[in-house]
Amino acid sequence: MDRIGRQIYQTNRKLVHLLTHQFKPYDITPEQWNILRRLEERDGIKQKELATAAGKDQTTITRILDNLEKKQAVRKAVKAGDRRSYLIYLTEEGRRILRLLQPVFEETMDKVLSGIPGERLAAFQETLDQLQAKADEELAKSMQADLDSL
User: Fold this and answer.
1) pLDDT tens, 105-120?
2) Would the pTM of this model clear 0.90, i.e. be above it?
3) What is the 3-state secondary structure (H, E, C) of the chain?
C-alpha cells in the first residue's frame, strides 16, 4: 500500500515538473493554470471556496491570485455586504492564457498517456475517482474530529 501512495505522489510531481517546463515560455505555472481552469468552470467564486476547490490553504491561494492579478489574468472584487470576502473573476487576459495553453496541456498529456490502451486508462480514471472520494471522506472525518476536540 505504501508503494501506491508513493507512486501517486511521484507521478504527480513528475507531471507538475513536466508541465512547469512546458508552460515556462508562457510565464504560467501549473498551479496558476489550475486556478485559471477552476475559474473558467466557476467564475465569480469566493476566494475561500476557490482555495477549498483547489486544495490550497489561504496563504497559498492569496499568493497565486496576487501573481495572476499582476499578470492581469484575474481580478478580485469585494463581495457586496461583506468587505472581508473577495469574489474572484477571470479576465479576458486569463481567458486568452487558457486558450493558449489548452493545446500545450493536451499535447503534453497525450504524449504521457500514449501507448496505454483506452480501457486501461478508463479503469485507472475510475480507480483515481474512488481514491479521491475516499480521501475526501477521510479528510472530512479528520477535520470534524479536530472541530469536536475544541
Assistant:
1) 999 999 999 999 999 9
2) no
3) CHHHHHHHHHHHHHHHHHHHHHHHHHCCCHHHHHHHHHHHHCCCEEHHHHHHHHCCCHHHHHHHHHHHHHCCCEEEEEECCEEEEEEEEECHHHHHHHHHHHHHHHHHHHHHHCCCCHHHHHHHHHHHHHHHHHHHHHHHHHHHHHHHCC
